[in-house]
Amino acid sequence: MRNAVQTHRITAAQFVIVLALAGIAYANGDVRKDLHFKVGKRPMITIDNPYGAVVVRAGAAHEVVVTAILHSDKVEVDQSQSHNRIEIISHLLSGADVNTGAVQYEVLVPADTNLTVHSDNGRVHAEKLHGDLSLDGSNAAMEVVDCGGGHVHVKTLNGPVNLVNLHDGHVEVMSMGGDVMLNGVSGPLVNINSNSGKILYTGDFAGDGEYDFTSHTGDIEAIAPAYASIDVFARSNQGRVDSDFSLEPKHSSLYTRGGSALVGTMGKAASAVKLVSFSGKIHLKKRQN
Q1: In what order do the strands lie in the sheet with 31-38?
Q2: Parallel, antiparallel, or unpaired for β 75-82 and 85-92?
Q3: d(CA 75, CA 101)
Q4: Do the beta carbons of residue 213 and residue 199 sit within 8 Å?
Q5: In 19, 48, 111, 221, which residue has its Cα 20 to 30 A from 133's Cα atom?
Q6: pLDDT at 8 (0 to 100)
C-alpha cells in the first residue's frame, strides 16, 4: 500500500512537471510545423524566409522534409507544390517584426535539388548538394559546405559568406560589406566581388579554372601551396600588392614584386588567378605545411 501511495505521488509530481514544461512552451509561443513532399529528379525548391535560419541538407531521394519552428502567431508558413517545384514562404502578418516574425527551418532535400533561398536576417546553410544554388539576403550569414557540380550564386549586402569544400562548380559571390571566406573551393569559374568586405581564399586554385577576386576597399588574401599551378595578375590602384612566391615573369615590363602590381606564373600555369582592388591590400601567401 505504501509503495502504491509513493508511486502515485511520483506520478503526480511528474505530471505537474510535464504541465509546467508545456506551459513554458506555450508561453514562448513556439509552434512546430512538419511538411512532406514527394518529388522527382532535380526538384526546384524555393524558400523565402525574411527572419530566421534556413538550414538545408541532403536527405533521401525523391522526398523533401521541412521542419518549421514558428515563434509567434505573427507569421504563417505558406506552401505550394506544382509537379517538381516546391515553394515555402514565411508569410508575415500585421505587427510582425524581426523577433515575432522569425521562423527556423530545417530542410532535407534530394542531393540533386536546385535550391533558391532568400533571407533578410538569419543564417542560411546549404550542405552536401550538387544542384544549382542561389542564396541571397541582406544581413544573413551565408554558408555553403561540401557542395559541387552545380552553379553556386550568393548575393548579400552585409552578411558574411563562408564557402567550404566546393568542387567542380561555377561559383559567383557578390557582397557589399560582408567578408567572403573560401576554403577548399575550386572549379572552372570562381568569381568573387566585394565592395568593402575582405576576401580570404585558402586552397590550391585547382581545376584549370578562372579565379577572379575583385574588391573596392576590402583587402584580398589568397593562401596557396608551394605546388600551385597558376597564372597570376594582381593589382591595387592605391593599396600594396605582395607575394610570398617567386613568380616567373610573363613580361618583364609588367612584373614587379611588391608595389601595386604583380604579374607572373608558377608551375604549368594551369589556372588563371586575377586579384584586383581599388584601395585594398593584396597578399598572395604561401601556405605553411
Answers
A1: 31-38, 63-70, 103-109, 54-58, 123-127, 141-145, 161-166, 180-185, 199-202, 220-224, 282-286, 241-243
A2: antiparallel
A3: 5
A4: yes
A5: 221
A6: 46
Distance CA 130, CA 169 (A): 9
- Kindly give the parts of the chain with pLDDT less than 50: 1-10, 12-13, 15-27, 252, 255, 257-258
Q: Is 17 helix (H, G, I), strand (E, B) or coil?
A: helix
pLDDT at 250: 72
- Taking phi over 0 as left and psi of -120 to 50 as alpha, with beta for the rest, 142 belongs to beta
pLDDT recorded at residue 278:
94
Within a 10 A sphere around the Cβ of 112, how many other Cβ atoms?
18
In the 8-state DSSP scheme, what is residue 247?
P
pLDDT digits (tens, 9 = 90+) for 23-71: 334 335 699 999 999 999 999 999 999 999 999 999 999 999 999 999 9
Could you write out the DSSP letters of every residue in 163-214? EEEEBSSEEEEEESSS-EEEEEE-SSEEEEEESSS-EEEES---SS-EEEEE
Q: 266, 247 in Cβ contact below 8 A?
A: yes
- Per-residue model confidence (pLDDT) at position 12: 46
Q: Tell me the CA end-to-end span of the chain in Å, nearest whole number.
A: 72
Helix, strand, coil percentages for the chain (3-state, nearest 5): 10, 50, 40
The Cα–Cα gap between 68 and 183 comes to 30
**280 grid coordinates:** 585594398
The grid cell for 169 is 562548380
Can you give the pLDDT at residue 251? 61
Would you state the cell numbers that stand for residue 147, as one nine-digit string? 557542395
Whole-number Å distance between alpha carbons of 124 and 105: 10
